[in-house]
Amino acid sequence: MPDSQCKICRRMGVKLFLKGERCFTQKCQMIKKPYPPGQKRKRRLTPLSEYGRELREKQKLKNLYNLKEAQFKNYVKKVLKKRGKVENASDLLVKILESRLDNVVFRLGFTNSRKQARQLVSHGYFLVNAKPTNIPSRQLKKGDVITIKPQKTKKAVFKDIKTITKKIKTPNWLEFNVEKFEGKLKTEPTLEDITIPVEISSIFEFYSR
């Protein structure tokens, strides 16, 4: 049965890959029902207003990174305060979002979704620089090393991790050692490294109103 995460993608009109592997199969609701929830297939959609378009882009990015409104708003406001002082505000926002510990855990292939990554980090499954942490929002920096706690590697959630991670293309700003269950930030992520189906400038306009 489709759940609320599938409805988010259908409402936004774009795949946000919130369900992990399911999103790459024919079971994906965006393939089976490529129209908004409650929307009859052939009904003509009303064009979005400028505000509506900005709201949609904001919702896309917020849901993509599995964030609550207050937390996401704080990130954007932080970047807006620096706009004009940094070379690229969009790049800075992506750097902040991608450098979150839960996102890095997901990008390394330890989990199949950011939601699952957040849950496992919260339950203390990972070490950063050999020290335990349970803060999904922790900002990582160049050189930081992420590993699974040795006593957690036998958990069912990691039973197929070697097979799964070998199929995943690690982003060029990360490196991953599957034998050691170890990932490392080689460099800071940039907008050029990330493909996201979002118009970030519209998000800045939304929060600048």
Number of helices: 9
Radius of gyration from CA coordinates: 18 Å
Q: Major sheet: size, sense and barrel closure?
A: 5 strands, antiparallel
For the record, the CATH architecture of the largest domain stands as: Roll
Care to describe what's here?
This protein is of the alpha+beta class and 209 residues long. The protein folds into 3 domains: 1-46, Ribosomal Protein S4 Delta 41, Chain A, domain 1; 50-91 and 196-209, no CATH class; 100-185, Structural Genomics Hypothetical 15.5 Kd Protein In mrcA-pckA Intergenic Region, Chain A (Roll), CATH 3.10.290.10. Helices cover 40% and strands 9% of the residues. It contains 9 helices and 5 strands; from the N terminus they run H-H-H-H-H-H-H-E-E-E-H-E-E-H. Strands 2-1-3-5-4 form a 5-stranded antiparallel beta sheet, covered by helices on one side. Strand 1 and strand 2 (131-133) form a beta hairpin. The protein is globular, with a radius of gyration of 18 Å. The termini are far apart.
Could you give a short description of this structure?
By secondary structure, this protein is of the alpha+beta class. The chain contains nine helices and five strands.
Task: Reconstruct the topology from this structure.
Elements: H1 4-12, H2 29-32, H3 50-64, H4 69-82, H5 89-98, H6 101-107, H7 114-122, E1 126-128, E2 131-133, E3 145-148, H8 161-167, E4 174-177, E5 182-185, H9 200-207
